[in-house]
Structures are given as structure tokens and as C-alpha cells.
Amino acid sequence: MVWVVYIHVLISQMHNSITNTKYLIEWAKNFYSTFLVSGTLSVDTFFTVGSALMSYSFMKAKRKNVRFNLLRYYLHRYLRLTAPFAIVVLVSATLLKYMGSGPRWPLFDQNFQQPCANNWWSALLYVQNYVNLNDMCVQQSWYLDIEFQLYLISPVLLHAFWNYPRVCLSFLVLCVLGFVGVSFYVAWVYNLSALRTNFYGNVNNYQTYYYFLTHTRGAPWFVGVILGYYIFKLKQIEFRLKLNKILVWIIWGVYFETMLACSLGGYSTPRGEEYDRFGNAFHIALVRPVWSLAISWIILACTSDYGGPINWVLSLPIYQVLNRFTYSIYLTHFTILNVIAFDKKRPDYLSNFNMAYDFWGILWFSAGISYLLVLMTEYPIAVVEKMLFESSGKRKRNLESGVHNAALEE
User: Fold this and answer.
1) What is the pLDDT of residues 56-76, one digit of tens each?
2) Domain ranges of the chain
């Protein structure tokens, strides 16, 4: 989430009025900017971890013979996502225009308030990455659209995986390869730039034809589904990962090199005064699935006691607390950032220090707002949902008990 906030600060700086415009091109060519732009990979971490947890939880419930309730499955997900999101949409559609002023403020109203006033319905239905792609309400919510759309098809995949694991595994691998092929094709046809800081390709269509769309971004989610299945097998001791120490060290070395290649590999190939069509398309097609595989190794290694100190760090209890606020920070930080940016009355000076200064302010400000949002929406919805489903379960158990007693009396 820190990486997400930082890259949005960078994007805001790049699109703001700045006094040292020439420095922007020079700055965009260094390693530091490449690392920041690679923050988009953190979204693929969310896809991988989220789908792995979903897959593992489903398999675990099936092993315990817990009856699958499709309505509850969808309702639970929709309520959890939508309760805080609806508040952000409502505020964006009604109150944003009163939060600032200045020469650039009409652009803020046009780009942030009006889309929510007009297209709030498509946001709450999680379809605007296809329906209102160029007029999106709460622009960072494209991730929610993709995640929810994939969640809708997940029951079919998970049931198939449980009943026909070998066939479904082959199918899921083919799906991942299909996403890779589609991404390469789209990048090739539209001459897309792999990095937002590469000014020599088609940067403008990067989001429209690739970044916001489910059929080009689904590979990490499918990798996570496969990962969740094998974690379930490990937990059930149906599958053991036996590796000697030397091999474990080799795999960890390959993992770190892979992470560096994904986050910094775009420094050379996709960048240059002459647009490298193949290099950019190749990078776009492979970087996210490969990153997802690297994330999968971390989870698999820690689950199999091959994580060492990394497992200890990632298992610290503090993350159980911080995890409760990441979703609300994701929903609020981009709007807060742009309120501040469009309210400014003079140009900025682009520098690493100024970006760091803006980043820490935005991060902690959005953390404070997210704390209120969690208390107002996520906790109450969790309580209501628990009461609703528990009362439904009690009624069902009472009914079954009554039928059983009547049968005994007869």
C-alpha cells in the first residue's frame, strides 16, 4: 500500500504544473523513477494474495463438508467491498467541489466530481472499467472492478478444481498463458509503453487498452487460485515440499533476482528515444505473471517452513492491525492527493525530496481518514452481516431440529 501511495504521488507530480519541466525527462530516465513506476506491481500482489486466500478457504470449507451458499458468498463480498466504497462515491459526487478553489479547481470538478455524479451506478455495480472507462468515478476503483468480476466466476472454477483438480489445473495454466498472449497482442497492436515514464510510446492508451481491463490483468489472480489449492494440500499433508538447503538458497536467490528484474528490468529495454515495439510488448505481457509467481514462492516457502527470517518478519502481529486499514487507505488517498494538488495556487518544483514530503503527508492523512471510514462502515457491516447470517443459521437449525423431533414422535 505504501508503494501504491508513492506511485500516485509521482503521477500527481508528473501531471501538475511544475517549474522545472525539463528536469522531468531527465529524472524519468534514472533507476529511482523506474522503481517508483514499478509500484503498479503491488496491485498484482493484491490479486495473487486475495485469490490464494479465497481458493484456500474454499478448499478448507469443502474438506469440512461446509455447505456452499452461493447467495451468501456473493452478498458477503459485495457488502464488505461496497460499504466503505459507497461512502467515498457519495462524498465524491456531492462534496468534493466545496473542498478547494483556485485556477485549476474547475479541472478537478470535471475529472473527479462529475464522473461520480453521473456514473455512480456503474461504480457500485463494479462494471465501469468497461462501461465508463474514460469517465471513471473514483479512478483507483478499477482494481475493485477487476477483482469483483473475477470473484463472480470463482465458484465455477473452485468447484471444478475441487472435483477435477488435474483437468482444472491444466485449464487454469492455459488461462494464464492466454492472458499473457492477449496482453502481448494488445501492447503490440496499440504500441503501448511498458512504463509511464517512457515518453516514446503510446502512453495515453496504456490504461484504456490494457491497465484497467480484466481480460489483460487476470493472470496473477489465476496464479493465486492455483497457489491456494497447493497451500491447502500442504496443510492437509497430502502434498509435501521437500527441498535441501542448497536448493532452497538457490530458489531464494532466483526469487530476489526475479523481483529486481520485474521492478527495474524496464529501465533499459522498454525505454529509448526510438520506441522498441517488441521490448515493450514483451515486458507488458510477462512482468505481472512473473511477479505473481515470485510472490507465490514467498507464500509457499513460508507455509513449508522454508521462509526463515522472512517468514518471521511477515508473521509479525502488527500486520493484523495494519491490514484493517489498507483497503480504506486505498479508497481515500488518491482523492485526498488530488484535492491538495488541484487546490495549489502556484507551480511545484519536482524533486525526490518534495515527492517524499508529499508522500508522508498523504499517507498519514489518508490513514487518519481511513480509521474513521473503518469505524463508520467496515466494522458495522461486519457486525450486521454476522447477525444476519447467524440468525439465518439458527432458524435453519431450529427448523431441522423441529422436523427431527416430529419424526421421532411419529
Assistant:
1) 999 999 998 888 889 889 988
2) 2-409
